[in-house]
Amino acid sequence: MSVFAAYAKQAKELQENQTSTEKPEWLENSSFQAGLVLNKPDQDVTVLDSNEDSAAECNEAPKAKKKKKEKKGKQKEKKSDIEPRAEHKGEVQFTDDFVIDRKQTREYLTVNTISRPAVSKYQTNYYLSKCFKNKKSKIKRYFKLYKLKDHNKSDNEEKDCPKLTKQNIEKACFSERNESFTSFVQEKDLSKSTATYNKHLAENPNDIEMWLKYVSFQDSVHQFEKSCGKGSIAKAQRVQAERKIAILDKAITLNPGSEPLLRERLKVAVGAFPADELQQELKKLVEKEKHNIILWQGYIEATQCSMSHCNCQTVLALYSKCLGTLHQLRRTTLSEKYVFEESILKMLYQCGLFLKQSGLFEQLWTLLKMYLELNLNSPEKKSFNLEIYFNEKELLELEEVVLNSQLPHHELWLRVEKLRESCHWLPYVEDLECEDPQRLVLSEDVAELIHPITTPENIFKLVATILTLLKIPLLPCKHCTMQDLGLDYVPWSLDSVEALLPIFITQYSVNTLNNNLLKDTGRLTVGPQYLKALPGQEEYLNFVLSIMENCAECLKGQDQTSVRVWWFRFQRLLIMLDNQSRFKMPSYLKKRIKSSIKDLLKREDCRNNEVYYIEYALIEQALGNLQQGLKILNIALKMNKNKSIQTNNWSEAQTNQCRLYRTLVECTMESQKEDMQQQVQELLVKLALQRSFVSITNGLIMEAESRFKSITNALLGVELTNYSSVHHFLPEFFTDWVICYGWFLFWTKGAVTCGTFLESTLAELDTKSPTLYFQKETIYEFYCTILFKYCSENPGSGVFKILDEVLFRAIEKFPNNLHLLGILAKEQGMTRSSGVSAWKVQSLLLKSGRAMATIFTVIINNLVMLEIEKDAVDSVTGRSIDVALSFKNRMLSLFKKITAGDMCTRRCGLAWRLYLQFVHTYFDSSLCRNVYYRAVEECPWLKALYIDAAIYIPAELAQIQDLIIEKELRLHVTPEELDILRA
User: What CA–CA distances, in Å, run from 875 to 28, 379, 865, 886, 887?
Assistant: First the structure.
């Protein structure tokens, strides 16, 4: 029975026409009439049923299909829907898991990203570039430099364009290299230099200087890679830092404990890594090497200099932990006890700086007083409990005047804050209730920071550290003195102008001062201070002078003499600042200085001390009494009992006698008399021959020269010692003798002969011992002084070039020497554009790696601008020419350089304060605001920045006060209290 009755007759006729065959019984089912024909094994099918057409076509289609070459742009043949997926060998091969695109399917170019497993995978091969010379790619894909493998490419094409493999790379016809090409030459030179460094360091692994040069050389490599476009620019700084650290790690492994290498590694890490990562790394290193003071400094600074982590209590806790660890290590060792105490003093200095700069002066003085009482043998138990108070009624009256003045809100806050900051710097000790709780400081608050100093050699260093923290400048301010006292390693120690004041004290009787140098010193002070005429100035000055006197009373021997000499020189500096109108000395202070000195010299233990008489004579000279000063020196010279010059094991009398003659010579030069040169020669001949005479003759001069020469040669043959900081304040025979001999040659044979002698002396010292830093630095000071004296008196002599060469060499070796920096500033102010180019001076100072030298780039530029402005006059109109336009752009570039990430001054408070002052003067408030936020990002603990910002950008006052409170800095008047006072 047919399923469809209408077709039953046609099906029956078709069945009758076919060959009859026997059918199985199951095919006779009435519900299935398929009309199938059962073929015999040896029979071919020639006739198909209509229902079998589609199946037959499917079986025969693959056999009938012909292989054709695929061409670009030809339309693809239609594929059958039921074609086997995995067996197809066309353009796209499908499998159950992924798709293989054998042609550059353009549809994929419109898709930004393709997720796996749908993303296509390409198998790439490289071909020689000559195959693509005349071919233009229609589609720019990300595989520009190579061509995708085409499975349908002919064998002839592959022969014409062979694959680039290791076997045929030598046969490839590349174009010849142009060895004169700039980049190729540079790369070749860098490779040679790298090979030279590697070879030298492999042979001399203990050469610290070469390791540091190799690290610095990586900057050149980085610059070359950057200019040639090698590597990722975004990651370049990190890669460069990691490369340097890898070199330094190897160097430290070969030279364990090397301070220059450790400091360089810390500097690289700080400049490259974020604060969190840096803290974690340094914390691990500190736990491994608890004795390493450099790692401790870096670990604490990583927290202190982080805007997000800086907090007074957090930072002080780290200082307590560090000092406690060093104290425990000192107790468990005997051989390194002196070294651990030096480390304790360094961390005390750094902790004191943090307290001072964050405004916590009450805590600072409590800490310093406890150190003095614990470690100094005071004859009186309460010698450091000074009762210096400001009249509170006077302070309240001044505040009342300010509050009634109806000034703007920010001005009111600033003036009240500065008034209280200048007057309230000692802890509150009265019985009455104190309104300001921060003035109440107990010994328990700083007890964890107190540790005894038991080594006698470190007692003077302790006193020097404390006096420096109280804003008393080093006199003399030498590079080796700062290094020996441990004051050189903290780049953020400069926050106010007091440390730069030694530049204004005259040495060697040569005037190196300039009226435009640090013209406005008062604006760069921070309370409490003794320079600016504010309430509390006199009280603080009396306080520091009393501390110096009491410290000297508690010391003995050379320590006592050095502190008293420092006390003399500090008072002389104040007198000279008063003479230059940079400091207004109270009327009674000059009388008090002279009376206190006379009282000291009347004492039995000081009556015969010739060093005190020398300093007293120089103070009389500073007061304008030159003849009185010369009289005091002659009296002291008569007291001296030395009769001859010994070249070995010289006595104290011989040393003092030489210093007396040297001081007499330099004071006589100040007199400017007609017979001044003859008087100087007579004094020097007396020193050399050790006898008196009626009048000077040529024979005596020749005999004195021979004597000077023979004794100097003998002294150079003796083994000299490198003096510690306590001796830097006292006379030293070798350097005084060389200076006297130098003055003798200067006044008899000229500056060139004197310079030749000093040059040979320095060469002898370098050959003799590389560690005689104090002697070399003092001779370099004198060498530059006489050359400057001669150049200033004979500007057309052509000696300026020699001066520049010697001065650059000296500053490169001793960048913290303020006398050398003062000569450089004076010379640049004199010569302006005719001297050494400004970029050379700037390069010299910036590469020194010291904050003091870097700050002088700003000071010198300001000085030169003021000197040019003073004389710049239009020749037609006669009016002054404004030079500020070119100056401000140059200065803005300079400030960006000195506050960059790789500079030591990026965390120097004074640099940022000068930057803020500059942009406020010459630019708009938006730039000033940006500089302020950059500054607090680098120095979040520095209160002086917030005070300056309140002056320059008053609109930010609320945010400034919030930051001060957040960082727990000292705030004398809160916004809420100010509102109450105003009401």
Answer: 131, 70, 19, 20, 21
Q: Enter the DSSP assignment of 255.
A: S
Strands (DSSP E) along 387-515, which ranges? none
For 167, list phi and psi in degrees, rounded to 5.
-75, -40
Q: Which residues of the chain are under the pLDDT cut of 50?
A: 1-2, 19-21, 38-89, 130-136, 142-153, 157-158
* pLDDT confidence of residue 77: 43
Q: What is the DSSP string of 737-796?
A: HHHHHHHHHHHHT-HHHHHHHHHHHHHHHHHH-TT-HHHHHHHHHHHHHHHHHHHHH-TT
> Can you list the alpha helix ranges (DSSP code H) found in 451-580?
459-469, 479-485, 537-554, 557-579
Considering the entire predicted model, what is its pTM?
A: 0.79
CA atoms lying within 13 Å on the CB side of residue 740: 32
Q: Are 168 and 174 in contact (CB under 8 A)?
A: no
What pLDDT score was predicted for residue 76?
41
Q: How would you classify the pairing of strands 92-94 and 124-125?
A: unpaired
Long-range contacts formed by 588-591: CB under 8 A, 24+ apart: 589/541, 590/623
Tens digit of pLDDT for each residue in 718-752?
A: 888 888 899 999 999 999 999 999 999 999 998 99
Cα-Cα end-to-end distance for the chain: 116
Taken in order 125, 131, 133, 139, is the CA torsion positive or negative?
negative
Q: CA dihedral defined by 327, 331, 337, 341, rounded to 10 degrees?
A: 20
User: What is the C-alpha to C-alpha distance for residues 201 and 926, in angstroms, rounded to an integer?
Assistant: 50
> Helix (H, G, I), strand (E, B), or coil: what is residue 512?
coil
Q: What is the pLDDT of residues 265-309, one digit of tens each?
A: 888 888 777 888 888 888 888 888 888 888 898 899 989 988 888
Going by C-beta distance under 8 Å and a sequence separation of 6 or more, which residues neighbour residue 964?
943, 946, 971
Residue 52: what pLDDT?
A: 43
Tokens of 332: 């468990």
Both tokens of 243, joined, read 């490369």
Cβ(240)–Cβ(266) under 8 Å? no
Give which of 26, 31, 2, 25 is closest to 14, Cα–Cα. 2
Amino acid at 497: V
Q: Which residue type sits at 889?
A: N
